[in-house]
Amino acid sequence: MTSFENRPITKVIVIGAGFSGLATACQLQRQLDCDDFVIYDRASAPGGAWWANKYPGCAVDIPAVFYSLSFAPNPNFSKVFPPRAEILEYFNGVAKKFDVNRHIVTNTEWEGAYWQESTSTWLVKLKDISTGNSYYKECKILVSAVGGLVDPNPFNVPGVDGFEGDILHTARWNPDITLNQKDVIVVGNGCSAAQVIPAIADEAKSISQFMRTPQHYLQNDNLQVTERWQFVFRHVPGLLLFFRLLVFLFLESTAVRFGITGNGQKARNQSAQGSKTYIQENAPEKYWPLLMPKYEIGCRRRIFDNSKYVGCLQRSNVHLTDDPIASLRPRSILTKSGKEYPADTIVLATGFSLTQYDVELVGRNGCTRTKHWNDFGYKEAYKSIAMSEFPNFFFVLGLNSGKGHTSTIYSIENYVDLITRVIAPVIRDQSLSVEVKTDKENEYNEALHKAISGTIFNNSCFSCFIDQKTQKNWFIYPWSSFDMWYDTHMGLSNDWIYDVSCEIQYLLIPSGHCLF
């Protein structure tokens, strides 16, 4: 059932209540003094990926002093790489401080959005998950702050329906299911697997891990932040900001290894050697071939081993294999080679189905998002946030916004700053709409993919960064963080078309935040 009741026009609708949605909400209030917005999320509580991923051992792999919003520093993290609970506590604290929760509507699915030329608004289709009823809301500005680390990849293996034990995905963890003295199968060897296995190894009777492609593992010591240091951070002005700057600069210094240059190759060789040494000093020799990839380091996502997964492989109850799973039996797994492994519980650390771009989006003249990308020849957006033919619509952490070496929160803040500056005239009723110029969209994406071709983030190894249909990298931002800041703060006024509805001498676009 779909409701078409009278709809008041909301200034801004944000889809997604993770860090992207939170940052958008805070900056709408801080930078634009805009309180007329609503955030919709299908989950039962805000937090995005940090709410969804409840598996044991879940933690951040970027120093938390930099995995936090610049306008809401936190001196209270207990470790350099704190666990999920502390990140979620920080998230909820920021939401409370900026009074964001009253704007959030949970248990609500985004089903589509349709541009209304006559009113210069978006008609947004939503579904109340608890009732199954669909309805529409109307807004001036629509922001997709939908992330990709929520929907599990499907597990399509013969016999899965006949398996009598429990099957859990790391993003759908059930804390009521005990693993005590259970034979546990872990499928996958990415970041989630590297965190969950050490966390459950003491409890499980046995853990058999099934992997496909080897990963690069890097040593990452997770230092404690003592109460004394927390006290100092709280009471010495500027000290936490100084540490944030140091982390920013250190992480930025590692970006050289991604370039196809002499210095880049040298840095990759050093990093690869460090990974190899770490494996040889900590993992059983029988597993070395499974832990040392032949492709260049950085081509796929590296794993920072905060949880000491590599050392965990020394345990007698942990077993690693690349023998492919052939089928499931009621209480076991059968491999391609014919081996059978006992299984009470299967833990899927198999990554995510990237569905954030699947929702129907219809812009000017009936142009769909799919048609727009087909016309371009690949998935793209101007500076990751906007597409021509889709006025007043914006992505946070959209296409080619990802960085391989630094904080996602840094990227979020920069793109949110750009969005708030661009939409300011619409929010202030100085313009009906804003749309990126087609030629600027073209120019940007040509430059972007040319830059990607000069990095290791191309199609030289099978990576989820690569669209297998077009062989284009849809994920990586190929330039430095300094470039990202400049890209999102300087020289952009000629890239946009404003539908001005009243006489104004200029369009006021406020300045953004500091570099780091």
Automatic annotation (TrEMBL):
Q: One Pfam family name from the record?
A: NAD_binding_8
Give the required cofactors: FAD
Please indicate which superkingdom the organism of origin belongs to.
Eukaryota
Question: Does the keyword section mention Flavoprotein?
Answer: yes
SUPFAM superfamilies the UniProt entry points to: FAD/NAD(P)-binding domain (SSF51905)
Instruction: Provide this UniProt record's keywords sorted from A to Z.
Output: FAD, Flavoprotein
Q: What family does this chain come from, according to its entry?
A: Belongs to the FAD-binding monooxygenase family.
**By what name is this protein known?**
FAD/NAD(P)-binding domain-containing protein
